[in-house]
Automatic annotation (TrEMBL):
PANTHER family: METHYLMALONYL-COA EPIMERASE (PTHR43048), METHYLMALONYL-COA EPIMERASE, MITOCHONDRIAL (PTHR43048:SF3)
Record's keyword annotation contains Metal-binding: yes
Catalytic activity: (R)-methylmalonyl-CoA = (S)-methylmalonyl-CoA
Species annotation: Caenorhabditis briggsae
Protein name: Methylmalonyl-CoA epimerase, mitochondrial
Protein family according to the UniProt entry: Belongs to the methylmalonyl-CoA epimerase family.
Function of the protein: Methylmalonyl-CoA epimerase involved in propionyl-CoA metabolism.
UniProt cross-references to InterPro entries, sorted A to Z: Glyas_Bleomycin-R_OHBP_Dase, MeMalonyl-CoA_epimerase, MMCE/EMCE_epimerase, VOC_core
Record-level Gene Ontology MF annotations: metal ion binding; methylmalonyl-CoA epimerase activity
E.C. number(s) listed in UniProt: 5.1.99.1
Ranges where the VOC domain occurs: 32-160
Top-level enzyme category: isomerase
Length: 160
């Protein structure tokens, strides 16, 4: 009897989670992981590291609005963004001064609508870095959230 009841409970919870997944493709505000970014003091060395493992690796592209060069490494389910400073006032320079070998810099999560997402996170007391979204590496609007309000992780939101 007890096991029948737990089977019924399990079936019910599977039904609920299937319904939830079907009607809410986003986990709340958050959609797919777009990329994990790694800051590097040597873009060629980092690019070669992933090429050597057989990955498809893009050319370096200067992102003048963001003060970085980007290289994208394609993975089956996501991307790695390699970052290197561009120009005098790169936002990643202080990070590289502290982390001489480079390291994980931010994660980028897709959202359906950047303006809605920005106002929702602001309502929750999460600081954004900058007032307005900028156009990111994929030609879509992005906004960064302060790492001190996100459990020590710099989060980039990108419109899907
Ligand atoms: C092209 C585009 C795209 O993909 O489309 C991109 O990704 S552009 C990627 C580059 N763009 C960005 O990162 C834009 C947003 N970033 C920023 O505005 C900045 O980098 C900040 C996150 C505010 C950090 O600025 P800065 O390094 O000058 O400040 P700071 O050294 O005083 O750091 C303040 C505190 O935050 C911590 N902190 C700094 N960078 C961090 C990071 N990446 N992850 C986690 N914590 C971090 C520091 O350790 C410090 O903590 P303690 O006080 O405890 O020591
Ligand atoms: Co990024």
């Amino acid at each position: 009897m007890a096991s029948l009841r737990s089977l019924a409970k399990l079936t019910n919870s599977v039904a609920i989670s299937t319904r939830t997944m079907a009607s809410h493709p986003l986990a709340g505000l958050l959609g797919k992981l777009n990329h994990v970014a790694i800051a590097t003091p040597d873009l060629k060395k980092s690019s070669d590291f992933y090429k050597n493992l057989g990955a498809k690796v893009s050319e370096a592209v200067p992102q003048k609005e963001h003060g970085v060069y980007t290289v994208f490494v394609e993975l089956p389910n996501s991307k790695i963004e390699l970052l290197h400073p561009f120009g005098e006032k790169s936002p990643i320079q202080a990070f590289l001064n502290k982390n001489k070998d480079g390291g994980m810099h931010h994660i980028c999560i897709e959202v359906r609508d950047i303006n809605e997402a920005v106002s929702a996170v602001k309502d929750k007391g999460i600081r954004t870095l900058g007032e307005k979204p900028k156009i990111g590496a994929h030609g879509k609007p992005v906004m960064f959230l302060h790492p001190k309000d996100c459990g020590g992780v710099l989060i980039e939101l990108e419109q899907e």
